[in-house]
Batch of 3 targets.
Target 1
Amino acid sequence: MTDANDEATSEEVVRGTFAQVDAWHSSPRFSAAPGSELFKDDQDWLPMPFTDSVKLELDLAAEQLHQIKVVVEADEVSLTSQRILVRTALISGSIALWMISPDAAADRTSRHRLLVEQTHFRHHQALSEQVGLEERAGSVQPNLARMLEHTTTRLDEVKALRAADGQTTRWNDTDIIRAAALYAFGKEPDPQALANEAVFEFRVTSGAAHGLPWALYNSAGMRATTSTDQHGRAVMTAQPMWSDLANGYMAAYWVSYSAWKLLARRGR
């Protein structure tokens, strides 16, 4: 059970990030300075340069964090909806930090190639489904067919580039979040414990993201309103709690914060 002091602290911590979130959410496109580390990284895959990929992930994270701010300021914090926003913010911020955190350029570009491959792979899946729908309807838009062809070409190109360099790592959200959290919390007394918490938040928010109620079970706002019956059942109610929001939100915030700092440092 969470007490009133915990709730007040959790609310204060979350609200204390909103000015920074606003700045991120309204930030313009970032271009790496000629001669900088990121400018060199950008040359590895020109169709979607490294810097643009990192900034896009940070923009995606900032959008989710901003939407949480909107929900909070409207006093509309809910049981599950903000968990989906937290999950997306945590994933996007972690991808950005995972890409930009290695000091070795080869490691950064290797991770970027993996992101590009995953992006084209998922886009190709969606476009293939859309083409199938239009074929069954009797007419495929010419621009859609060209987009699918283009995506296929890019996917084959990045696969070949990775294969030529012996890059065999597969995409794994959990590994990316753990690596990002270990970097973001690297100077804390127990980075591994905090990384474990970040991964836990990724796991627990999946219930809401996939329409399953289990993430509410044993949550801070869940209470039994009756005694148990002969089958061990009781009527349960749940209410939104700041402590349910704060940990995952702050994990997403701090991985994004670390990535923004590296974007500025490596891009200048």
Target 2
Amino acid sequence: MKSLLTYRHFAKVSLATTLFAMLFATAAFAAEHGYVSAIMEPDPKEKLFPVNIEQINGKEIELGPINRLPVGSNEVLVSLVFNASWGSGMAATQEQIYTKTIKLDVEKGKTYYLGAKVDTDASAQAQADGSFWTPEIVRVR
């Protein structure tokens, strides 16, 4: 009977130790990263619009609302999300896929929200060459 009680005690201590180690490792691992996400809602007054995050440091990403980045310098490839509120003068942009890279200097534990600053009065030439928009860090938390 004593060996069964000893085994149960060992199993409880072992499980508790394993769970503590997992939690500690997860916290330490998360602390070495920052995060990137895209704004979901446009701010037409500020001419800020959503983007899709396509790649991080040249690698395709798993779809999700927030993506983890290593601390330090990173490059994020984003694509512009067409918005019907831009008006008929920007209709030529609807069928195009516009992508640009933005560089982020990531600090641990911070989340960077990306969007696009869009010139909604852009000329046909600016629409054709994609110069009517630039990716931006909209906020950091």
Target 3
Amino acid sequence: MGMFDSVYLDAEAAKLVRCVHEHPQEMAELQTKSLDSTGTHYYVVKVQLYRQAPWIPGRAIGVIEPYGPEGSFYLVDRTLLLKSDLTATIRGYTHCHQCLAVVYDTGREDMWTGSLDSRRPWLEWELIFTYGVLQETRPIKLESRDEVKAGLERRGLRVLDDQDPLATRYRAQHRS
């Protein structure tokens, strides 16, 4: 697989990047090999592209803020984002984390999950930037839940009904 970079979209940009079921991909990690593939994080905020600044030894990366009366705290990240003037087409891909996972029986036992596993719809887009501004998005592949089910069944795997108690429990245990 190798290294990749990650692109995260704010609510405004996510409206342009939806799954086939119309879920916006807000703050979903879109992986890409279209950039340097060095594990860098990019953010699209109000359609402007930003690159996360590299960590500098000795620089505080967060602040601790109190939370509640029990003495708990939040660690609030203070990451520097640098405005980018990149002109490029970035191919980004992910699974829709808002779509209900399709649970299926793998046919082989696993010590952690038994014989069950899950898959979500695969999503791929081209994000077109000019001088760092997101101009357009083009869907490349937007898989539906029905296509996921059909693909698993073609491979001879048994897909559980969404309401099946085992599927419901599996999703609850795996927060999928």
